[in-house]
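ok, trying the design again with the full structure, not the truncated one.
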């Protein structure tokens, strides 16, 4: 399902934990400018509200992210998520998969997925489901930014077989939220992953070197 040159590609973007579709759109402004005319970025909210629990001395939340959302919780009792938590149980993934499937219907056609942080981890799971024949997710490629392998016990099955989805994995060498080695671990579950490393932290880079890499990856899907 490639896009013609005139139409451009359509990417469904999955935000990170404690973000939402609106805040993620704002945070990807540089990327939208970089891809303008060739790619349209579409956005979807995670279905679960995240109750803010600021720690003593923590800075005030970004006003854009007052309506915080999450794709699943690694601690269902507390309603929280931590990427490093070895969760024996988790909650919320099925509702999130349904939300994404609905977005495919309402915003389609969707040519690829772009995920950031928890959204990137979810992209990995959706890629595994598509490979297993799940008809809800018709797309051709994935861009995975600051991604990681879910530690939830109930998610282990998604990583049992190599994922043969064309993928670009973007990781920051100074990312303190999702260390680069966690992103490399997720990439290792794909058969032929492309890796784009940048010197920064936990964000989606869109400067000149990354622009070239994005366009080279995406051009193969435009006919």
């Amino acid at each position: 399902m490639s896009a013609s040159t005139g139409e451009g590609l359509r990417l469904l973007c999955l935000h990170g934990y404690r973000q939402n579709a609106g805040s993620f759109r704002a945070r990807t402004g540089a990327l939208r400018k970089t891809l303008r005319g060739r790619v349209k970025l579409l956005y979807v909210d995670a279905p679960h509200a995240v109750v803010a629990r600021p720690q003593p001395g923590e800075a005030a939340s970004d006003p854009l992210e007052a309506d915080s959302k999450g794709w699943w919780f690694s601690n269902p009792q507390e309603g929280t998520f931590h990427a490093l938590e070895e969760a024996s149980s988790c909650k919320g993934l099925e509702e999130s998969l349904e939300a994404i499937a609905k977005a495919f219907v309402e915003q389609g056609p969707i040519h690829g997925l772009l995920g950031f942080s928890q959204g990137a981890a979810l992209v990995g799971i959706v890629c595994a489901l598509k490979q297993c024949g799940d008809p809800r997710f018709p797309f051709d490629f994935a861009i995975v930014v600051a991604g990681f392998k879910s530690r939830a016990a109930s998610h282990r099955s998604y990583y049992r077989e190599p994922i043969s989805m064309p993928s670009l994995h973007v990781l920051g060498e100074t990312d303190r939220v999702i260390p680069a080695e966690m992103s490399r671990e997720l990439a290792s579950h794909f058969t032929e992953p492309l890796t784009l490393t940048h010197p920064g932290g936990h964000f989606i880079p869109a400067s000149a070197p990354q622009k070239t890499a994005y366009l080279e990856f995406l051009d193969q899907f435009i006919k």
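Keeping the full-length input from now on. The domain at 9-50+66-219 is CATH 3.40.50.1820 (Rossmann fold).
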